[in-house]
Each structure stands twice: as structure tokens, then as C-alpha cells.
Amino acid sequence: MDFKSVNLVYFTGTGGTARVADAFERSFMNRSITVQRTALKGVTDPVIGGDMLVLLFPVYAFNAPKPIGEWLKKIPPAKGRPAVVVSVSGGGEISPNTACRAATIRRLEKKGYDVIYEKMVVMPSNFMIGFDESLCAMVLHATPVIIDKVVAELIKGTRHRTLPYGIDRLAARLGYVEVLGGRIFGRHLKVNDKCIDCGWCEKMCPQNNIKIIDGRHIFGNDCVICMGCIYGCPQKAIEPGIGKLMVVPEGFNLSKVEDRMDHLTVYPRISHATGHASLRGVRDYLIESDCFEL
Ligand SMILES: Cc1cc2nc3c(=O)[nH]c(=O)nc-3n(C[C@H](O)[C@H](O)[C@H](O)COP(=O)(O)O)c2cc1C
Ligand code: SF4
Ligand code: SF4
């Protein structure tokens, strides 16, 4: 397929999807394809251009996060421009995640996009149950390899669309609960006395939902439960007032895992790292990468 430039648009809360965007950018640029990159933050005006749109998002409650839907409402008609939809999850392409791209694809098609390719990418889970360090490292290692294969297929002109299970389409509707849930979760966030008023959370929140006024944190109504402020605060000073179970107890820090990866020379076998039944989708993903022994 002949394309020379890509419009890479993504939302990220804790950096996993940003790393997937990095891998796409590197892979396209290695093939002399130019990349215009936009991270959705607050109200982002649509940046349209490029021969192809690549839209990436983390899976929240078997669906796309609210900022993706908001952005899609604003984009102009596309008249057949090709689009690629990439979901990033902790669970992989298993039920009920299989329908997580369906609503986004429907909206793009209504705008006139030709959705030529869809893909589930796995990154470490930031929700309820985290991955242990070697599994995080394996996934971080596998992802650029898988993305390189995706980019090679796009250049060849391979089309890849999936058929979600019917029951998963129903589950994906749960994603809409995130909108109300986010408002409640966000309003109940608390800042404890470890806070040193560094202002990081105010700048970082992808929804611009945190304001620090006279040393007091004010949380607005636009929280999408991305977990960025909770995991990222350097003092660990932000805690959920409700929904504590959604937070991985040992925290979530991809940069730390990446630092330690440099010293990791031996990876466990896939079957050992993904023994638990809930990691079936992650196991399939690691097998697909062809990077590790089964
Ligand atoms: C509110 C919320 C809901 C989530 N729901 C799902 C889910 O339904 N399925 C899944 O596999 N992962 C789920 N996850 C995990 C994230 O999709 C995954 O960790 C992703 O890599 C996070 O991307 P980010 O670091 O770019 O924010 C959820 C995470 C959050 C914060
Ligand atoms: S990031 Fe943490 S320490 Fe910094 S202002 Fe926010 S709550 Fe306080
Ligand atoms: S308030 Fe915290 S959890 Fe909510 S959107 Fe902002 S950074 Fe994410």
C-alpha cells in the first residue's frame, strides 16, 4: 500500500499506550514514512492530515475511553481515508475484550474512514491485578516486535478486521459506565499529607481535571479513571476515596521496569510466566511475538 505519512493519535493514562505509539513511530520512520503525532489531552482539536490515521487507546471496561469518543465527534468527514484502530489492554484479545474496538470502528466508518486494520496490543495491566516484573518485561520486549510486523503488513496492503463475539458487544456497553464512574471516582480522590505541592499531577492529568488552588487540590468532573495521578505522584500522595480495589496494590511504574529490563538476560518460559487462566490472552500475544520459548 502506498502511503508516505501517518497521523498517529492516542490517549494514554499511565504511559502504556504512549509506548505503543513510540513503537509505531519508530517503525514507520525506519521505513521513511513521516509521522504526525498527537496525544489527546483535555479538549484536543482534531489534527487531520497524513495518508493514514492510526488511532490508539487503552481498553477501559471492554471499550475505548471517553476522550476517544469525544475526539471522534469532532473530526471532519474523511472520504475513504484509510484508518487503523489499535487497542492496548492488560488482558489481550480474549472475551469480553474482543468488542473493544467495535464502537470506535463504527464511528470512524460513519465519518467515511475505511478501517483497513485493527489490532489488540498487550501492555502491563494497570488495573486491579498487576503483572509481575518478568511478565512486564516480556510484554514490553514483545510489543515493538509485534508492531513492526503490523507495519510490515500495512505496507504490504494486508487488511485485518476481526469479528467480535456477540456477548462481548453487550459487555462493551459497560464501557459507558466509565463515564459516570469516572465522575464519581474523580470527585472522591484524596490527597494526603505526603504531598509536597510539586504541581506534577496538575500538569500531567490527561483530562486537565486537577487544579491546585491556594495549595488545595480540586478534582473536577472529567476524570476517566486513567490512574495516572495515583501511580505517578512522586510522593504517592493521591488515593482513591472509592474504588480502591481498582488500584494495583504494589503500584505501576513502566519506567522502573524498563530500567530493570536492561539487566535482564534470561526470561522465563511463556507457560511459566502466564500460568494463571486470566493470562490466556497475554500468553497468546507472547506466542505471536515469537520472542520467547513456550
Ligand atoms: C479504568 C480501567 C479499566 C480497564 N479495563 C480493562 C479491560 O476491560 N480489559 C483489559 O484487558 N484491560 C483493562 N485495563 C487495563 C489497561 O487497558 C492497560 O493496563 C493499558 O495498558 C493501560 O494503558 P495506558 O498505560 O496507556 O493508560 C483497564 C485499565 C483501567 C485504568
Ligand atoms: S503530584 Fe503528588 S506531591 Fe505533587 S502536587 Fe500532586 S499530589 Fe502533591
Ligand atoms: S484525575 Fe487522575 S485518574 Fe482522573 S483523569 Fe486525571 S490523572 Fe487520570
What can you see in these coordinates?
- The structure is a single chain.
- This protein is α/β, with parallel strands linked by helices.
- Helices cover 36% and strands 16% of the residues.
- The strands form three sheets. A five-stranded parallel β-sheet has the order 2-1-3-4-5, sandwiched between helices.
- A hairpin with a 2-residue loop joins strand 7 (210-213) and strand 8.
- Helix 1 (16-30) packs parallel to helix 4 (133-156), helix 4 (133-156) packs across helix 9 (254-261) and helix 4 crosses helix 11 (280-289).
- Bound molecules: flavin mononucleotide and iron/sulfur cluster (SF4) (2 copies).
- Compute the CA-based radius of gyration: 19 Å
Bound molecules: flavin mononucleotide, iron/sulfur cluster
Indicate the low-confidence ranges by residue numbers: none
How many helices? The count is 11
How many domains? The number is 2
Briefly say what this structure is.
The chain is of the alpha/beta class. It has eleven helices and nine strands.
Pick out its properties.
Rossmann fold; Alpha-Beta Plaits; 2 domains; five-stranded parallel β-sheet; 11 helices; 16% strand; binds flavin mononucleotide; binds iron/sulfur cluster
